[in-house]
Amino acid sequence: MARKTASDDVLAPLTLAVGQEDLLLDRAVREVAAAARAADPDTDVRDLPPEGLQPGTLAELTSPSLFAERKVIVVRGAQDLSADTVKELKAYLADPAEEITMVLLHAGGAKGKAVLEAARKAGAREVACPKMTKPGDRLAFVRGEFRTLGRSVTPEAAQALVDAIGSDLRELASACAQLVADTEGTVDVAVVARYYTGRAEATGFEVADLAVTGRAAEALERLRWALSVGQPLPGITFALASGVRAIGRLASAPRGANAGQLARDLGMPPWKVDRVRQQMRGWTADGVSVALRAVAEADAAVKGAGADPAYALEKAVVTIARAARPARG
């Protein structure tokens, strides 16, 4: 979990989120934005990449408003700001505007150290968002997710979930939320096995593997078998989402990177990187977007928004398979 290392006042004038764990960085931003909008629903949130903060932009964003509106200014990749922008940022931090809350996201390390030093000197509320590379860190994250969601999880179940899902925090968080939404009481290893391991892995993930490689007929056959033997529908939608997301993440990774480096960067085991590389042939960015929308619609149907969840899953499988082979229409 993200660790706060300074004031716990979410609406402090400056929050500094340091690290490279995207989920935790995004949560730090959402926490501040939500608190600001709770205080003032008309809060204007500006979320800027480093290239979006050019010399003069900060002065424009922080200039007094006729209506004294509250603003949240989010600066991502603060370690990549230009020297001129860093100079302007330092001047602003020395005399911040009362109605503005700023959130700086910094990767940590030596690059852009001047920004870190200036933010800390200004008394920033600091949130640590480090990459979780150790198995113990991911277990602690899972336990923390269930605790935040108001549920308890056994140590064996937490370990089983990490073993089934892997090291991707977004997928772990999604799995925790799904288990809380779909089950009651303490989450034990039997619950996790029912949704994410054992039979579910041999069916839901098999359906996904067939769908993302464009084999619609085979994927539909395996899906119908999974439905006939009572596989949990949320586990199937999770498997489909995981398969499509993995392709999208790998497709956006630098070309030519070796499997070991990609495994570290993307939080996948090397064997999965190799498998996804084979699966992603024929995929396009538009195809990934179409497939993710199809999965989202199926997930909504499975959770009660549709009259026929099985049909919604079949439709999603066909859409994913077609997206994987766009040339075949």
From the alpha carbons, calculate the radius of gyration and give it in angstroms.
22 Å
Question: Spans with pLDDT under 50 lasting ≥5 residues?
Answer: 198-202
Largest sheet data: 6 strands, mixed
| Extended strand count | 6
List the strand order in the largest sheet. Answer: 1-6-2-5-4-3
Helix and strand sequence? EEHEHEHEHEHHHHHHHHHHH
Q: State the separation between the terminal residues, measured CA to CA.
A: 44 Å
Structure description:
- The chain is α/β, with parallel strands linked by helices.
- It has two domains: about 5-130, P-loop containing nucleotide triphosphate hydrolases (Rossmann fold), CATH 3.40.50; about 135-329, Zinc Finger, Delta Prime, domain 3 (Up-down Bundle).
- It contains 15 helices and six strands.
- Strands 1-6-2-5-4-3 form a six-stranded mixed β-sheet, sandwiched between helices.
- Helix 2 (about 55-60) links the parallel strand 3 (about 45-50) and strand 4 (about 70-75).
- Helix 9 (about 200-210) packs across helix 11 and helix 11 (about 235-250) packs parallel to helix 15.
- It starts with a strand and ends in a 5-residue tail after the last helix.
- The model is unreliable at about 200 (pLDDT under 50).
Describe how the helices and strands are arranged:
Elements lengths: L2 E2 L9 E6 L2 H18 L4 E5 L8 H6 L8 E5 L7 H12 L5 E7 L6 H9 L3 E5 L5 H14 L6 H11 L3 H14 L6 H8 L2 H14 L3 H13 L4 H19 L7 H8 L3 H10 L5 H21 L3 H16 L5
Parallel strand pairs: 2-5, 2-6, 3-4, 4-5
Antiparallel strand pairs: 1-6
